Amino acid sequence: MIPLNNVFPTLLSILFFLLFAVSISAQNKIEGIYNSKSHTFEPTDKSYKTDNFREGYFSYSKNGLYGFIDTTGKIICAAKYDEVDVFLDGVARVRKFDDGKNLFGFIDKIH
């Protein structure tokens, strides 16, 4: 038989981990309303702006930087680019201005 004084700290650790994991995952979502007819996403927090729906993703901006969300508001790619294009055939072009240089790249869809 396992003594309860050994079980309780383990259960407490698991509970703490689950609560911490949930709070982290909540930061990876933008709350809002998706309209499937017009393919628009209206964020509840007005500091977020969404645009350009294509291939299941919206581009979004926050503080002048751009990223991507899905139709549920889940952040697929954090807002870290100076410019993004829409997804086309599973890839999107991104631009980052760094140290006086324009850096271009491509990101692919995450399934």
Describe this structure in words.
The protein has 111 residues and is α+β, with helices and mostly antiparallel strands. It has one domain (1-79). The chain is 21% helix and 47% strand. It contains one helix and nine strands, in the order αβββββββββ. Strands 3-4-5-6 form a four-stranded antiparallel β-sheet, with no helix packed on it. Strand 1 (32-35) and strand 2 (40-43) form a beta hairpin. The longest helix has 23 residues, at 4-26. The protein is globular and about 40 Å long. The chain starts with a helix and ends with a strand. Residues 15-26 have low confidence and may be disordered.
Task: Show the helix and strand layout.
Blueprint: H1 4-26, E1 32-35, E2 40-43, E3 48-54, E4 57-62, E5 65-70, E6 75-81, E7 83-84, E8 91-98, E9 101-108
